């Protein structure tokens, strides 16, 4: 069991190291951030001064070792634009993204999982085909297009919801629906597939022959045994909600880390971009780790294999 978790931990550290290194190299080799910040008309002496001030005149390997050393002590640098600690800037925006992500995740789970179960129970019928058609439409529709469409309908045409910003529940509705649509469609399809496989098992037919009510067979026998693939999809999509919020937050001017990332990239604020990439990577890794933990809770065979 200890070896199992040591391997998981080593993979986590290796993944985060690779993400940080990749972001560092790409950002440093894709252009001069000082020129992007000061403008092409800045004096050469001024440009050189800021390069020395921010340590950008050092060789790339020296800059990399310095950045890794700062991360090891819990420091993620200072914003080139605001001259403020990166983590302070991220922590200001993180609550808005968490609020949006949790709302979208709850909405997707409340819609997608029951829809998948209902489609499996009505396999081959018109309800099954209708749910699957909506599911395909949901995860095939681009977020930015759906967001703009909702703004046109509910903000410009009917004028019942605000088109951008945050602060009230009404501001949250359209961004949450836009972000949840893809996850809900994915959950519906995977839940249906998992439930169809379980519903054909002999113990389900035996429960029906014993007179167990249909709702008990579904909730107490079928759903727990179909939970492994459903939990996998939930975990992957939960991690992707932070990364997927980049487009949604930009469309709705939602003040989260997704919109902050777009602004930081456009301004070539290297420290902020690196910090945000690390936050997104940590979210994905923690989501996968949570899925691994739930596997052991849901299936005793996985716990025995880990031991």
Automatic annotation (TrEMBL):
It is found in: Cell membrane. It is a multi-pass membrane protein. InterPro entries: BPD_transp_1_N, MetI-like, MetI-like_sf. The keyword Endoplasmic reticulum does not apply. Keywords: Cell membrane, Membrane, Transmembrane, Transmembrane helix, Transport. This is ABC transporter permease. GO terms for molecular function: dipeptide transmembrane transporter activity. The chain crosses the membrane at residues 100-121, 133-160, 172-191, 226-252, 272-298. Residues 94-295 form the ABC transmembrane type-1 domain. Belongs to the binding-protein-dependent transport system permease family. One of its GO terms (cellular component) is plasma membrane. Its main location: membrane. It comes from the Bacteria. It holds the Pfam family BPD_transp_1.
